[in-house]
Amino acid sequence: MKETISHNKEKVISIENLSKSFGKINVLNEVNLEVYKGENVVVLGRSGSGKSVLIKIISGLIKKDSGHVAVLGKEMESLDSKQLQELRLHIGFSFQGSALYDGMSVRENLEFPLIRNKRNLSKKELTESVEQVLHDVGLLQTIDQMPSELSGGQKKRIGIARTLILKPEIMLYDEPTGGIDPITCVELNNLINKVQEQYNTSSIIITHDLTCAKTTGNRIAMLIDGKIERQGNFDEVFASEDPRIRAFYNYNFITRS
Q1: For position 41, what pLDDT does the model report?
Q2: pTM
Q3: Which of 10, 163, 239, 245 fits a disulfide with 92 by CB distance 3.0 to 4.6 angstroms?
């Protein structure tokens, strides 16, 4: 279990009374959450509990209904489209499906965000940046492969590399260990920790995988029925006798016949 980050540090994400509905369905109901510089916060919850909606609101992909969201000191609701685009350059979003372009090689997938956002880089600088980030995720050998030639775990790593190439301050991981085998899950969890340390990122990790939560999270926030019901380190959260929290733990960790 990871140690807790001191809350004396700077807040990089601050969420107050955040609510979001789709039609008559209340997905988020007055959520309050803070993330401190250098901290990994895991948001745990069942499928459909609003976890992914939360990070899409943080990155400006979905608009909130009410409440306040501040990222890197900027109130999201006050930003125009240009300011939002500039802020997003500091936020890395690791999609559940890796979101690679199938028609591009690994090299081209990683060059794309650099070319789009930093058009003055030379070919040599592009190559050095791509090779460095691939080395950091342990997949330099895949540089000229196509996404169709990669395993699911490799695609997730390349997706993270494509995000890291812009050196974001904040990482948002959406179900990073979803749909992959247990051994690859361990590798992904280790990579998330490496990214935190090597790139000095602050992160929100969305998952329902308790092994991922215990391995990567400095702090855990339990999202139930659209509300953060409990926060703390892993042991503190699951010391609860709340049957909804106990059931979540039991499903993940009690051996089933």
Answers
A1: 97
A2: 0.92
A3: 163
